[in-house]
Amino acid sequence: MKSLFQINIRTPLMVLLILTTALVAQAQDSRIQMGSLDHLAAKASQTVDVNIDERLMRLATKFLSDKDADEKEVKQLVAGLKGIYVKSFEFDVDGQYTAADIDSIRTQLRGPGWTRLLNVTSRKEGNFEVYLLLNGEQAGGLAVLHTGNRELTVVNLVGAVDLDKLAKLEGQLGVPELEIETKPKAKNDEK
User: Fold this and answer.
1) Domain boundary assignment for the chain
2) What is the pTM of this model?
3) What is the C-alpha to C-alpha distance for residues 53 and 30, in angstroms, rounded to an integer?
């Protein structure tokens, strides 16, 4: 017969094991939680909110033709993605969002597996940050954070990310123009 002590010690250990497994799985998730930014919609002159999960992406790609070259290319671009999520706010005046709003996103991007690939700071254009979630040697997600005096944009791609393909996805399915260059400019192009 099991003693009361054995039963009582195993139950908390099982609960702890289950919670730890759930937290580790969540830590490797490439989906950024952006709900903390929802309150900014009331202050914004323009708001963009794109939520395309894997189910909707599969449904949308069914309507794309394999005969049309552009549609076929978009279909191939999103093949490894499990979701596209965008929140973008434009404001008529400066100072409509706080550092705490941005930190709610950056804190998630400091989690396990996330690496900042790019950080551009410009007084005119604002700050531009690109983060990649690496699962081993595979890119499992991408996040872009753009902050300006009158703009705040977060783009999150969930799933296998190919940077060469991503450059072609700009301006489609809610992904803004990110000006991603996959090949270095030739010296003649820099003029």
Assistant:
1) 47-171
2) 0.70
3) 13
